[in-house]
Amino acid sequence: MPRLSALTRLLATPALVAALGIGCLGAALGLDFDRLQQALVSRFGTTQLPLLQEWRGLVDAGRGLSEREKVRRVNDFFNQRIAFDDDYSVWRQSDYWATPVEFMGQRAGDCEDFSIAKYYSLLELGVPLNKLRLVYVKATQQGPYGPVVQAHMVLAYYASPGADPLILDNLDPSIQPASRRGDLAPIFSFNGAGLWQGTGQQSSRSSLSRWQDLLARARSEGFQ
């Protein structure tokens, strides 16, 4: 049996550390597209309406596809259409988690925004909640003066409870099993049902607050 990566070991851990009142979402969110469009236009104008309509087309056309194909299309949609940028450049804040509407409205965002938009999209396409986790990691990349470690977020998809999860990432656009992502060291993971602890307990608490705030803002925009 191949040696499991740290990322795979964390994501395979079945014990739920806490269901901390972060709200449970069903397999599909029941989007109100009229409200989503109004939310987009009221804050960002009409410039990004075509992108929102493209996303709606992705959702409408993708419901009957296999889960693996849904994962591929959602990953490609955001990676190919939206620019990576840091929170200060986009929001003038040190750390801001954008809703999918805000992400598309700015057409730019950081790793959390990519991961959250993919998470919401796959839920709406009917992928069950228990197959998805947002994962905070430390990512090692090669810089001009050697390896650089930075905080990062990815989305993990489980084809089955015991499967090696697939990683949806904006740094590496290819979808790979967690066991092949030795560049990612997990901190903790979460979804709409709970939080799984790796290391970094203090940071997970502050991030949970951001997650609760994001869920509330997304509901106000039309994600139900």
Account of the 3D structure:
By secondary structure, the protein is an alpha+beta fold. The protein contains eight helices and eight strands; from the N terminus they run ααααβααβαββββββα. The strands form two sheets. The protein has a six-stranded antiparallel β-sheet, sandwiched between helices. It has a two-stranded parallel ribbon with strand order 1-2. Helix 2 crosses helix 6, helix 3 runs antiparallel to helix 4 and helix 4 packs antiparallel against helix 7. About 10% of the residues have low confidence.
Topology record:
Layout: H1 6-12, H2 33-44, H3 49-62, H4 67-81, E1 83-84, H5 87-91, H6 100-106, E2 108-109, H7 111-124, E3 132-143, E4 146-157, E5 166-168, E6 176-177, E7 184-190, E8 195-197, H8 201-221
Parallel strand pairs: 1-2
Antiparallel strand pairs: 3-4, 3-7, 4-5, 5-6, 7-8
Helix pairs in contact: 2-6, 3-4, 4-7
Enumerate the spans where pLDDT stays under 50 for 5 or more consecutive residues.
13-28, 199-204
Helix content: 40-55%
Q: Supply the helix-strand structural class.
A: alpha+beta
- Side-by-side strand order of the widest sheet: 6-5-4-3-7-8
Mean pLDDT: 85
Strand content: 15-25%
Give a quick rundown of the structure:
The protein has eight helices and eight strands.
